[in-house]
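Sequence only, no structure available. Ideas?
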Amino acid sequence: MLSQWQRHYSADRNRWHSAWRQANSNNPEVERRTSRALKATTDLLEDATAPERVALELRSVPLPQFPDQAFRLSHLQHMTIDAAGLMELPDTMQQFAGLETLTLARNPLRALPASIASLSRLRELSIRACPELTELPEHLASTDASGEHQGLVNLQSLRLERTGITSLPASIANLQNLKSLKIRNSPLSALGPAIHQLPKLEELDLRGCTALRSYPPIFGGSAPLKRLILKDCSNLLTLPLDIHRLTQLEKLDLRGCVNLSRLPSLIARLPANCIILVPPHLQAQLDQHRQVALELNKVALERIEDTAQAMLSTVIDEERNPFLEGAPSYLPEKRPPGTPTTFGEIPVLQKMLEESRDPHFLQRVSDMAGPSPRIEDESEEGLRLHYTNVSNWKAQQSAHLGIVDHLGQFVYHEASQLDAASLAKAVQMWKTRELIVNAHPQDRTSFPDFTLHIPEQVSDDADDEQQTSPAPSRDQ
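Reply:
I predicted one. Tokens follow.
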């Protein structure tokens, strides 16, 4: 069958042949004699039918269409078809059900078959330099009556670069596991707000999409977007007024957006650690907005610090517990009968114990502390400064309830007694979690607000108290 396929396309060169030759015009190592090039393809296809093979790579050898025996490749997990003159994929893509990655580059493809949605194991789909491809199949993924997801349910990365794609199908919103969407240097002219409903989307790269004139509003989008790249979208005119709702954004690249005349004022409420890159004519606007953000952040940090200091005064000077209603004394001789005496008896402290052992929390603490300080100056003064920096770094690394002793046992646990030292550590834990939320507002769902009970006046006979909530997070 492969030899028959070879003879057929050796005689019928039609559209594929010129596309194949053009794609390889700058590659002197490509076999120019069509019959020999097709023979090389058949050899590679035959080799790929071996059960132990997991990948097929056809680069610069002709594959106008797949042969009828393509089902013999059903065991493959990875497939790359590059500069092969490929005109179309089989209508029965389900015969490649084992594919996890599919790369199609520099081919005269005009359409993708609807059956590509049957590749339920596909994690990465990359289509590059296929300018005749103007649309994607309508049904990439869907949800049936029972709530089960069907289609490209495991797709994590979709890359469309230098294609003819002008819009995305509505079913793009059903790609529940999509983490990265890159549509580069393509005539994409519109993008719907449903893109922000993708629950795992972390990267959206639209660089070079010069037909795009606006970016959609965020509304109540739940996408945990970290990177939004709009670089060289030269006809982009507006950004959404609610761009601050991208609460996890770490990078926004607007360089090359020469027709974008103004930045929305709420860009100031993007996370303080978000890197924003703009064209020169917008730099002054950005600086002004970011100054507002810095001032807001300063106020929030001051409130966290002031609240922590008031709590410490309550614990140390007043000998009272700010995590209990009424802030009763924790001293055995002063506390009212029935007052909790251990961490596990107080919901707030129990919750913070659980948080302190969560890998996400510990990673945030590590990120906030940064790498271990290095010696930069070996002079006496430089070494003294280094030791101070190391001491501060260690203190920040351990400013929570999840520290362990030399045996690897947790120092603080449900049975830990309430005293000045343990409650002071709980205050440190509260402060650390609030600093994390201030830097990452989206973490408030993991580290919820607590009502604190801080006496209005720090004195031995102070009976009144105020209920203090944590420093307010930025609007979301």
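The domain at 2-141+149-287 is CATH 3.80.10.10 (Leucine-rich repeat, LRR (right-handed beta-alpha superhelix)).
Hope that gets you unstuck.
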